[in-house]
Backbone:
């Protein structure tokens, strides 16, 4: 018989807060990690994450759904993607991310 595991990002296992007020809420279910990120206008991976990791670009692979706002991804080869609410993305390692516009960007990622 099957089992359903349920968790809420409203009660995360851990949270990362950024100096600008942005945050990432992490929930773990078995081998799956789900992250709800709320990034404020002006947030960028280069400004807030790069100083914490040993990489010039994000080394993570993402499955991502954008709930609100807009976010730009720039790959190492210079190609760019602008995502908006309702977009689903598969993002390979080697990218930078920047919130675009004056609205917070909220995403759900899972790995």
Residues:
């Amino acid at each position: 018989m099957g089992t359903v595991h349920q968790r809420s990002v409203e009660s995360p296992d851990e949270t990362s807060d950024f100096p600008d007020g942005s945050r990432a809420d992490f929930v773990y279910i078995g081998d799956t990690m789900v992250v709800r990120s709320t990034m404020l206008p002006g947030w960028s991976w280069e400004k807030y994450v790069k100083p914490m990791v040993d990489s010039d670009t994000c080394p993570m692979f993402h499955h991502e759904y954008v709930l609100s706002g807009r976010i730009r991804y720039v790959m190492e080869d210079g190609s760019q993607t602008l995502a908006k609410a309702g977009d689903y993305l598969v993002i390979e390692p080697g990218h930078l991310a920047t919130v675009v516009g004056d609205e917070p960007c909220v995403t759900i990622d899972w790995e």
